[in-house]
Amino acid sequence: MDSSPTPAAAAPMAAPAPPLEDCLRLLRGERDEQKLAGLLVAANVCRAGDAGSIRKVYDAVGPRFLRRLLNTGLGKVEGGKEEEREAYLRLALTVLAGLARVPEVAADEGVVSTVPLVAEVVSKSADPAIIEECFELLSLIAIASEDGACKFCEPGVIDMIFLQISSLLDGSKCIELAINLMRLLVHKLKFDNMSVENLQGMTSMVTCLARLFAVLHTAVKFDALHMLTTLLSQKESPLHDLLRSMPASIWESNIRVGITAILQNRVVSSEKLHALLLAECMMSILGEDWLSEDCKIQDTQNVLPVDKFVLLVLESARIEVAVLLNELAYLKYESSKTSQTDEAVCQKQRNLAILFSLIERTIKMISNATSGEGAPSQTIRESTIMQAITGLNETISLVLDFLQDAKDHGQQKGDDLLAAARIVGSYLAEAPYACKEKIRNLLEFIFSIEGQDESSPFYSICFMLPMLSQITMEADGCIILASFGGYKAVIDCLVKMTEQDGIDNGSMFLACDTIINFMSNRKGVNIPVDSCFIRLLKALVAWAGTTNASSVTMTASCLCAMLIDLTSEEFLLSCSDFDTKTLGSLSELIVRSLQQDVPDDDEEQFNQKQIIVSGYRRWADRFPHVKNVVEQHVSV
């Protein structure tokens, strides 16, 4: 530039509002000296003027000259002394910050385009006053428009702005403004329609926040924790996909270090809950084995050994669960009912759901470790696993006590009760005979639990299926299920599954296995051929008609073969909800299963075919239509 103001001139004393026309005339001048003089006046106009005047100033100077001024201040344009460059920088930032007070101007493409340059100023300047002005300007741009917020996601911008935070003076205006800007971006940016390039910028934000969370021991640590949970707790976010695709990096370890610091120190319960939520988010994004993976980083001073970290997270979650269960029981059954009580109950139910999810993922991690399916970097010791299992037994026992309390008070509807049923089911899937007496006494009640939006029990029964499919392999388990007609609830559950959009085959197989086991091991328990029976037959035929998968064909046919052994074709056709069309579909299913080639190494399908063949030979004469169709296609 041809000339430059002195540093003192870049920050004029506050003065009465200058004549606007004089300012605009100078800004429209052809020479740089005129524009610079106009900017000195414009700084006061922006302080004292209304939105209309500020818009006129912006239109007069234009974004191009302001970018030139920033580039000169950054030393990207040759010539000029260092003190002159700093004066240009201060002047450009002061004017831009003043102009950005008007949202319409802050949202203009020209102002938005300065974000990378201002970010570079933050990364290079050591002057707190300049950095403060930068953060104020950036905040105004971010809040004014979606495009303004997205500009921060361009490559390198986030890193330039926020990697300096840890070096800012604690309690300073700079760090307050920096955290406010980051908080603003976290809550304003939407990932759904972001380009891959902008999502890369968001991964930089996660990395920066993780570093702050690990290294700082001030209030900013908690700010970083809250922002990380906001970013990472969003369900099915494209950001998560990108984080999963990143090679193992320092950010994961930094989060581990930060969580450790929160859980090991005396902090309020709400912050510990946030730390546990973050641990749950990490396991949700990166897999359950994240909790027990041995992360290798250069600075291991603050990294807790894997086994201690696993137990720290689990024990912290267990303590919070015990407290919440006790508080919920008191609020629901003993305290006087008020709107505040209802709000407190809802908040505690949400917190309990988070903790239950974390514990469920920990159960899965332990299952992986004991079955050899864990990650190669998993180094958890057997003694740690046994200690964790002991703790889990205690927690599940407390959850069952909570359910017993609900039963005693006649409460069977609520998302907290459904969440309790789910975590019990998750644990019993891995340890089906744990807490045996309590389960025996509570199973009927668990089958009656409904979520807040359910009209009849469904999910509570689904959660029990992994356990039921195992205990019904023995007569005692069948006796428990028969004692309250529980097998009918499983049948109803199975039928409902076939009526949903998108059948969950995993749950269907578990339900079928439970009924097959029950029928094989029931030892004298009578199964009436009623409407429930008919609905099950029709549901199995419908399920098998949705796919050609051999596993579905064989499982459905096996159960059908066992069911119709209890009755006759004549009786079925006499039922109002069973017709010849259904009988035809049933016949076709039996034929398909008998024609199915079973691999030599598939023991389950081999056993199912044996059941189908032996069953057919027993009841074929009672089902002449089925027998006729089978004999046309297969020799049995």
TrEMBL record:
Matching Pfam families: Neurochondrin
Protein name: Neurochondrin family protein
Stored InterPro entries: ARM-type_fold, Neurochondrin
